[in-house]
Amino acid sequence: MSERLHPPSDTPLEEVEAGFVVAWGGGGHEQEYVVSLPGLIGVRGDKEIPRSISRDLQAKLQPMEVVNRGSRLEILGERNDDFVLGTIVGYFDELSRLGVQE
């Protein structure tokens, strides 16, 4: 069963749809993080997550492996919620502060 780590389960749907979701586990992803970006894929209409996002996160999440599957990112490695969530939230906060639109 997937365990949603970000955002909290009581987050309003419109905020979830505008941002990103990080989950641990789930069908076929039992030992990895899955990151989806509904704000990018669904709302903006992009067909897939830009490779620049996965490259940036790969550099920040070493030694974990970030795999871009187009509609989601998979992060492989030992479970470390504090490190993974802190890195991902920090990355997207930084992009937001800079006004960057991927």
Question: What does this protein structure show overall?
Answer:
The longest helix has 18 residues, at 81-98. The mean pLDDT is 84. The chain is α+β, with helices and mostly antiparallel strands. Strand 4 and strand 5 (73-76) form a beta hairpin. It has helices at 13-18, 38-43, 51-60, 81-98; strands at residues 3-6, 21-24, 32-36, 65-68, 73-76. It is built from four helices and five strands; from the N terminus they run E-H-E-E-H-H-E-E-H. 39% of the residues lie in helices and 21% in strands. Strands 1-2-3-5-4 form a five-stranded antiparallel beta sheet.
| DSSP strand tally | 5
How does the overall form come out from the CA principal axes? globular
| Poorly predicted runs | none
Task: Report the portion of residues in β strands.
Answer: 15-25%
Along the chain, the helix and strand elements come as: EHEEHHEEH
Q: Quick check: average pLDDT?
A: 84
Q: Please count the helical segments.
A: 4
Distance between the termini: 31 Å
Radius of gyration: 13 Å
Map the helices and strands:
Layout: E1 3-6, H1 13-18, E2 21-24, E3 32-36, H2 38-43, H3 51-60, E4 65-68, E5 73-76, H4 81-98
Antiparallel strand pairs: 1-2, 2-3, 3-5, 4-5
Observed structural traits:
single chain; 102 residues; 5-stranded antiparallel β-sheet; 4 helices; 21% strand
Compact overview of the structure:
This protein has 102 residues and is of the alpha+beta class. It has four helices and five strands; from the N terminus they run βαββααββα.
